[in-house]
Amino acid sequence: MWRLSVPRVVGSCLSVALMVTLAGSPPGGRAEEPAKLDAAAMAIQGKWTRIQQTPNGPVRLLKEHRGNRTSLVAYDPKGNVLYAHDSEFRVETTGRVQVLTFFNRKVTAGPDKGQEEKGESSFVYRVHKDEFIEVWGVLENDPSPPRMVLWKRPADRPIGNEAAFRGTAESGTTPSA
User: Fold this and answer.
1) In whole angstroms, what is the distance from residue 58 CA to residue 99 CA?
2) Which domain holds residue 98?
3) Model's pTM, two decimal places?
């Protein structure tokens, strides 16, 4: 039996999530200019954060959409970077849902630094107030089990189970990956 480590678990989860999030490429394979972003792409711009519980403790994830690019960084409770990657994305409306497709992911920190994934991954998403909701496993040809991931815009207030992330006795619930 193989051993799970936080960087590997987080890296794998984030890789899959980001590949699904940022799959697809614009016509000609070139990135869109930020000025050409539509309202759906503008709604997801900026920073999003969440806390993910792992077998080795909580991990803070910070995702930032700028133009048609996404950066994702995973931090341990002390603020050390465990994993990071950059990718490109596009958004589209299919029927009555919005879909985010990400592609051209490159790991920039962690044990898999330098690894690249050109393939596309997609998920259904919705922005509601200060929440970015990802729904995985519901699109055709997506073999993953259905799950929902909730991100929040960072603010001056705690996010999710901040006490658990900081290692204090206060309890609460956190969004799952």
Assistant:
1) 28
2) 6-166
3) 0.69
